[in-house]
Amino acid sequence: MKFKLTIGAFIGFVALAVSIFFAAVVAVIDYRVTSKLDGVLWTVPAKIYSRPLELAEGFNFNKNNLIKELEMLSYKKVSNPQRPGQFSFSKNELKIFLRGYMDQKPGFFSLSYEDSQIKSIKNQLGISEDLIKLEPTVIGGMYPSHMEDRVLLNWPEVPQILVDTILSVEDQNFFNHYGVSLKSISRAFLRNIQAGEVEQGGSTITQQLAKSLFFSSEQTIRRKVMEAIASLLIELHYSKEEILLAYINDVFLAQSGKRAIHGFGMGAQHFFGTSINNLATDQIALLVGMLKGPSLYNPRRNPNNAAERRNLVLGVLNRSNKISDSQLEALKSKELGIATPNYRTETKHPAFHDIVRLELQKNFDERELRTLGLAIETNLDPVLQESLERNLSDTKTQLIKKYGSKLSELEGAAVAVDISNGEVRAVVGSTEPYSYGFNRSINAIRPIGSLVKPFIYLTALNQYEDYTLTTILDDSKFSMVSGGKVWEPDNFDKKFHGQIPLHVALWQSYNIASARLGLDIGFEAVEEMFSKLGIQKEVPNYPSLFIGSFELSPYQAIQAYQTIAADGFYSPLRSIRQIKDTKGEIEFLYPYSIEQKIRPEPIALLKFAMQQTFERGTARGYTKKKIKSWNAGGKTGTSDDQRDSWFIGFAGDLLVLVWLGFDDNRQTPLTGRTGAFQVWKNFINEINPVKTDKTSLSRIEYFWTDMQDGQLSGERCKNSLLVPFIKGTEPKVIPNVRKTCSNKNRRSTESVVDKLKEVFEGGEG
């Protein structure tokens, strides 16, 4: 009797212990379930986007550039656009079926244009629209350490066809079970035997979610039991809609490099380049079908497998009465329609990405950028970015062919900005633009050579009562003591040019004349001008400053020139427009900031001289007809011993800077003209900048002057050039030797003056 009691007590103790252990396990699982599902379930990286292209009535566009951007967005050219992501071009009409973006609804639109200017925009009903917006391209993200990438969907954003397809394929009894369904397991087993392949899974959606969130993929009885317990607890705490939404946002669909693609929202963007709401039934079927084997059914790697799996899912929808027999046959015959990948790497344009990060760090910490799912809308123009990257690399290849393998390690950087507002359109930090590491656009601090000279000349022209474009400068040999040493500047051509007008000295980039001018106006005045141009750096007090021994990064240099190109209006360069949260609401806005720092008249004189760089100066020979219609001007720069090759130029609405050199600072065979200018020229020719509206300055008048002595001349006189002056500063006397030729065809001269005023007084350069 005593023995039986002992055994009974033992069995009771064991049962109690098992019960306590089981209860503890359930409690632990319950805690894990509720803490994760009630808290921040996923870390969602911030996404960085290009600017959305806005097309409006009166907008001037480049047809080739627009087609390139549409192709980048995976729009397909067809004869008659009938579904999102299609377009057609005729002689005077663009037809496009937009996918939709933020406040831009999807739909068909027709744009009529003439001479590259949009005349009207009409929707499918023939109603006029003021503006349409193309969705931006994704250029990168701020990824968490586990590199999961997803776009979170809210329940109203989930299309019904997605729900129907998931339930038909994965869990037909989802709304009638409590997390585990023996019926589903049995039905799936029988259905798969009948089909001769895996059509349906036996695990419920709740089990699949539990496995994904809490457990490994090991096939053990212990894991299955734990999974079942977790599934029951999830069902106990959460509604069916909450469970299904969590599943929709969590499923793994693909691996893209180091980036893991999770959720149907991200899957739609990754494979089709659009939001989930814009997908057709066949595209939804493809994504759902991939759940069975994300690698095996990846449409980019295994298109045949993907098509077969999609068609199988469509068959399930047909048997579930979600689509008709005729719809089934039509959908099965369609192409997969996979978009071109948006990512070369995790970050598409690393140099531009660096600029964005620097701006973000002023207002956001790293954790916010990696977890909150922020949408960062930048000012990047994807067509300009791609063109600038390619032309920098291609020009290097051309230079290697010309100068030999000694240029194989040549590096470079380039920046393009919108003149009017300082928006950064493109940034390249290396001749291998997709490589990570040293970003030369912001980190290469190099002597800018003759790029400094326009700053010096502008300082003088700003004192317009003392200096004009025809003020005579001395380009004869001179020396002085500086820092205890004799300083004796020399010209690049090793010649002296005597007495020459100021504008000639600038577009010919003469060192000696520039050094004398800088010494005449003084360091204090130059330093003040540097500050007005946005150069936040101490200006050295030594004379070699005036001919280029001053160091800036390409990004710093173009900031200074932006003020010049914008007629004296300073705008801080900015890469970001705005930041939105996961609900599409603006989290942070980066507003325009424009301040007039310099009067427009001295700027107009300087820009005239920089325009002459193409006509007669260090970039002469660039005879493209559009150079005048763009109101283009520029400046070459070559540092000592040709260690750095620079060019900066404005054309139409763009200001573009290029630098070439070696990282170890050794000598190159390149000048500003033979190196950096070639990149600039190739890029500008390709992208064909938009012409800007011209404005006139009432205080600017034009006079024929002699390019040797700067005195008044005439159209028919030898060496004459039509030069702008601020009213009252022009030369007053015509030398006797030129009185005859200066009086010929005065009316003709006046008409020429009027025409040239239109050219040279363009407001945006």
Folded structure, characterized:
With 765 residues, the chain is an alpha+beta fold. Among the domains are: 1-39; 157-249 and 261-332, Penicillin binding protein transpeptidase fold; 700-760, no CATH class. The protein contains 25 helices and 30 strands. Helix 8 (263-272) crosses helix 9 and helix 16 (453-461) crosses helix 18. The protein is elongated, with a radius of gyration of 34 Å.
Observed structural traits:
single chain, 765 residues, alpha+beta, Penicillin binding protein transpeptidase fold, five-stranded mixed sheet, 39% helix, elongated, disordered C terminus
Summarize the structure.
The protein has 765 residues and is α+β, with helices and mostly antiparallel strands. It contains 25 helices and 30 strands.
Radius of gyration: 34 Å
Structural class: alpha+beta
β-sheet strand percentage: 15-25%
Give the name of the CATH superfamily of the domain at 157-249 and 261-332: Biosynthetic peptidoglycan transglycosylase-like
Largest sheet: 5 strands, mixed
Q: What value does the average pLDDT take?
A: 84
* Contiguous helical run count: 25
Shape: elongated
Helix content: 25-40%
As laid out across the biggest beta sheet, the strand order is 9-1-13-23-24
CATH topology of the domain at 157-249 and 261-332: Penicillin binding protein transpeptidase fold
Distance between the termini: 109 Å
CATH second-level architecture of the domain at 157-249 and 261-332: Orthogonal Bundle
Q: What is the name of the CATH class of the domain at 157-249 and 261-332? A: Mainly Alpha
| Total number of beta strands | 30
Task: List segments where confidence is low: pLDDT < 50 over at least 5 consecutive residues.
Answer: 745-753, 755-765
